[in-house]
Amino acid sequence: MKTVIADCKNLEGHSLFVKFVRIFTVPILNNLPANFLQIFMRTSSQDAEVVLENVGSARALEVMYGRYRRNIFSRGVMQAVADLFWHHFVSQPKGVRNRLKIVENNLEKEISRILKEKKEKEINIVTIGGGSARGIAEVLNKYSDELKGWKVSVINLDKSLKAIELGKELAKEFGLFNNFKWINDLAQNVKLYVADNSVDVVEMVGLLDYFRDEKSVETFGKIYDILKENGLFMVGNIVSNKEQPFISKLGWPKMYYRSASDLSRLLSESRFLKEKGEIIFEPLKNHIVAVIKK
Predict the structure, then answer these.
(1) How far apart are CA 64 and CA 92, in angstroms?
(2) Would you state the pLDDT for residue 280?
(3) CA gap 178, 184 in Å, rounded
């Protein structure tokens, strides 16, 4: 599959100053004892504390996504300094926000295509392990005027009841509650709830990090089956990076770091054709998103 680095203007990178500071901070974070590191995070920042209390969950991701939804000084100067560090001098929060924006940008393109080309006014979307499904909710909210008169259905399949509750809260916030159906089950069981050749878009960004290769191929094969011809599949994976030791000390669940060629191979083994997609690196190269058609 072709690999590209996302060049969207709304994505985050590191300034020269941040890059200079990271020369010192990354080795320090990677080598601090886990207990000391966690105490430091809990006492310095409310956001960092919430992430620690919810490692590997949709709630932790929501904290990272929410950096720009409030003024950084809203909790005082000391908290602002801590938040600035954890949100901007550590790559992972920026990379996660970049990943979300890449998904949103590609979903917008697909919805625009469907609006122009599709005769029947119906869009079916499935998000697997989607947590709050923030990317989908934000895009559907953005296109609310264009989608008037359309039947838009979103199935959010997640094994976490807490993630489902987050999704319900967000859907209500955007006035999309009736467009969503939440199912509490495993990704591998998607075909129990979704018919073959019935879905326009499938999104699975964040879940693959925790899947072994065999489980990934099995799940991809089922996603291939439920997609319509020319349907879009977006899937992300974390990439090997300099902050891995730091992340492991937070108690984050075991993750499978994959290269672009690894992800391309898994998709090929699941019947997706390499020439029908591309793999997008977010600017910091901590995450990749494969965007591929059936």
Answers:
(1) 9
(2) 97
(3) 17
Q: Which residue has the tokens 């499935």?
A: 126
Neighbouring residues of 168: CB distance < 8 A, sequence distance ≥ 6: 177, 180, 182
Domains of the chain: 14-93 (no CATH), 95-293 (3.40.50.150)
pLDDT of residue 130: 85
pLDDT at 131: 86
The pLDDT of residue 153 is 97
Tell me the per-residue pLDDT of 220-263, one tens digit each, with 9 for 90 and over.
Answer: 999 999 999 999 999 999 999 999 999 999 988 999 999 999 99
Residue 142 clears pLDDT 80, i.e. is over it: yes
Share of the chain above pLDDT 70, in %: 100
pTM exceeds 0.90: yes
